Structure formats: C-alpha cells, structure tokens
Amino acid sequence: MLKLKQISESPNHILRVQGEIDASNSVQLDEAMQEAIQTGTKSILVDCLGLEYISSAGLGVFMSYLEDFKEEGISFKIYGLSEKVFEVFKILGLDQLIPIFTDKEAALAS
Amino acid sequence: MNNVIKLYCQTASLAELRKFLQEKLEESAISDALQLQLILAVEEVCANLIIHSHHCNQSEHISVQVSQSESRIIFEIRDQGDSFNLLEYDTPKIKQVVGEKRKGGIGIILVKKIMDEIKFSAVGKTNICQLIKKI
C-alpha cells in the first residue's frame, strides 16, 4: 500500500511518501515526482518518515530525475528514512548522490 | 511448516512474497536491517522474472522456497519461463544509470551486493536460481 501526498510550503515543495514502493506501484511515485516538478518549485523535499520499504523500482524513479535536477538547478533532498531503509540507499551509494537528512528541520537548515 | 510460496506472475504478487519472507525470516535471529535486505534481493529476482521472463502473464507462476541452516539461508526460485541468468548480465555503474536517466538496471546490483552466492541451474524446462546468504 502506497500513499503519496503533495504539500506546498512555498518556496519548498514536499512530497510525502508512506507505505511500500515496489514494481507494482512505482509508476505512481514517478507521476507524483513529475507533479512536484511541474509546480515550478526550485526545492523538492521527499518526506519518507512513513516509508516502510522501497525496491529498485522506486529507487530508480528518484535516480532518474537527479540529472534533470542538476541541469535545472532544483534542490532535491530526502528526509526521515528509517535506519533499515537508509541501509538500502547506502548499499547502492545513493547516500553519496542524494542529500539525505534525519528530519525536515535538518533538511531545511542545510 | 510450509516453506514454499507459489506466486502468479503479476506485480501485485510481490507484496504477498514480502509477507511470506517476513514470516520465514522472523523465525531466525537475523537483524531487521538484514531481513529487509534479503527480502529486497529475493523480490528483485522475482520481479525480473515476473516482468521480463513472464511478461506479467497471470496464468503462469514462479515458486520461492526458503531453507535455513545454522550457517546459511537459501532462497530457491523456480520458474519455467525464458531463462534469465543475472550473472550473465553486465551490471551497470550507479553513476552511469543516473547519467542516462534510467529507471531500471539497479535491482541486479542490489542482489549481487546483498547475497553471498548466486547459482543458476536448469532441470528440464525448470530454471532454478539459488540465492545464498551466510548467517
């Protein structure tokens, strides 16, 4: 079960991701990312406090936008990963490519 | 105790697989973080089979068996689709995947990094993939 919510907190845009992301629903995450980008914001934060599981299908969605964010000067940050989900990001070295923070305050302060 | 699950070839079966694996792994002394990684690696192989070998044909199925000893845990995945040997797959580099804005190709990296041994064999028309983790 995946729940996605768009939250506008100008100048930041927050995408809240809750539940599990796998190959059956990663398209929904992709659509939500596109929706966030289309708001025209220069700061996207992904709230993962309720993210219980993510497979390569979901990780691939985040990864596929990193070049676009760089080219378009969009700041992209993730916060609130549980320790075991963060381990998966680390296995792939994604912690070196995506700024990851413990909570929203830390993400906004950086 | 039933250690085998039969999954119909649809992506919705992946949640069912995770629940099954979670129940099996909870019986072991493996940490929560490693349990999640093992579930992930098995799911990545099954997702590849369901999507690429079986084209999400719900009339076909794959099976996953879990067996544990004191020193290792073995996940055996059987199917009768087109053979897909991930050891023959050229694993991309993460930066290459990002640079090419690709959404796929990283599942196999995860499987290779998480598991200690990966074996492929075939008996008749049945493909057998064994994922082994030392514990």
From TrEMBL, chain A:
SUPFAM superfamilies: SpoIIaa-like. Residues 14-110 form the STAS domain. It comes from Algoriphagus sediminis. This is Anti-sigma factor antagonist. It comes from the Bacteria. Belongs to the anti-sigma-factor antagonist family. Pfam families: STAS.
TrEMBL record, chain B:
Its EC number is 2.7.13.3. One of its GO terms (molecular function) is protein histidine kinase activity. Transmembrane segments: none annotated. InterPro entries: Anti-sigma-factor_SerPK (IPR050267), HATPase_C_sf (IPR036890), HATPase_dom (IPR003594). It comes from the Bacteria. Residues 12-131 form the Histidine kinase/HSP90-like ATPase domain. Pfam families: HATPase_c_2 (PF13581). The keyword Acetylation does not apply. Keywords: ATP-binding, Kinase, Nucleotide-binding, Serine/threonine-protein kinase, Transferase. This is ATP-binding protein. The lineage of its organism: Bacteria, Pseudomonadati, Bacteroidota, Cytophagia, Cytophagales.
